[in-house]
Amino acid sequence: MIKKFFQVSAILSLTSAVLLAGCQNKEVKQVNSSSSPNQQKALEPVNLKYYFFGASKPGDQDVYDGLNKVLKEKINTTVEFIKVPVGDYTQKMSVMVNAREEFDLAFTSPSYLNYFEQSAKGSFVDLTELLPKYAPETYKQLKPSIWDAAKVNGKIYASINQQIFARQSGFNVNKAIADKYGFNPTSVKKMSDLIPLLDKVKAGEPAEKTDQLFNAQMKNQVFSYFFPSYEWENIGGVDVPGVAKSTDKNPKVFNEYDTPEFKDFIMTLSDFQKKGLIAKDALTRPTFDSAKYMASSIATLMPGIEETVKATYKAEQYVIPLGEPLLTSANAIATMTAVSTTSKHPERALMVIELLNTDKDLYNLLVWGIEGVDYKKIGNNRIESLPGAKYGPAYGWMFGNQFNSFISGTQPDDVWEQTKKLNESAKLSTLYGFSFNADNVKAESANSAAIVNEYKAAFNTGLYGADTEKKYNEFLAKLKTAGLDKVLAEKQKQVDAFIATKK
């Protein structure tokens, strides 16, 4: 019987200074919800734009109206909450950023709207001094060593959303159907170990239920999900090749795509596609039925993950862990909120961040929706989603402090205490606190990332078929032509310098 697994993921400074030149220190007081009505009125009314990813729901606007009622009362602010489909997020936001389109807040990470790249090129406001001033409680919630993980050239360019920092990857498998076919979850150590079960389900279940058995997540950097199990970590974001082994005393940077692990990954997915385990029209189908998925890769295991995947896939799931929890800098900043340098109100944007981290009611409204409409309370901090819910739940880790969240389903009452302990006890990477500066290899990094994204979706879905190995060799050759060797050498140089400071 499988156990419950509770382990588990100078230009800009000047720009920021100009943007904030008119900020009044008195505004810091407005963050506190106990501020008097007269103090509240001292703030001019502003409207902000906040971009993040997720699927649109019928109840979105009602929830956003409720959020704005609170934000208006507390900090005289309204926010336009703008959802972007997950697979389109980085591309859409990159276009907006490059066009210098005006907005205020955005989700960022090493994987989505690359935090390191965007910080280095001046897309985000330097928050090093502004966080303690305009989001003081948010800043106090995390240890200095966690904030160190967010530093690029010694500066903090986004607020870290507090959640699971330790990373452990794995798989989820539909329990009822797996039990029907005599599946042993402990038999799975890698993706190809899922084939015997998926083959049986493909042969034994009605065809209309088996056209998308494996969730290929075609637009995501799925291969990077497995890095913790290899004890690898990204150096400078997942779009640009170059990783190192997290636990080595003197880590060596290498191209993760030129490895047996990656080749096995793409050849397995090609086999999945050949067997009909991945949707044939994966790259063109507009929507997928999450209840049809038999198995999926999980980027981050955490206490209570069973309930999360049950809600996502609409059925009880086996959760199968790979490796041990690992704490890296990239994992600590896997989910962040940045302020755009095009924002006219960066100080007010930080006040919104502060409330999402400190106001439990506001946070839960954004994540869970409206009580009596989307959920009902069945305990002091425990809720149950209602059948007719029109909203969410949204990704709780994407906003503020997830430890403010209600708990539901099979999540233990102390799920957030367990998560905090796991963050403290996870194995610490040798490179914790290191951040890569891509200034010397900007063009080569951009060219390499473009090539990765050119091939990614087809690799993830196995759609190169019999040509997979040929395309793989072509892919590696293009990376070399793009200047990847120069990128790897620069990463190694900076890693060596970082390690030298620790000796």
TrEMBL record:
Residues 431-500 form the DUF3502 domain. It comes from Paenibacillus oryzisoli. Keywords: Signal. It comes from the Bacteria. The keyword Signal applies. Residues 1-21 form the signal peptide. This is DUF3502 domain-containing protein. The keyword rRNA-binding does not apply. SUPFAM superfamilies: Periplasmic binding protein-like II (SSF53850). InterPro entries: Bact_solute-bd_prot1, DUF3502. Pfam families: DUF3502.
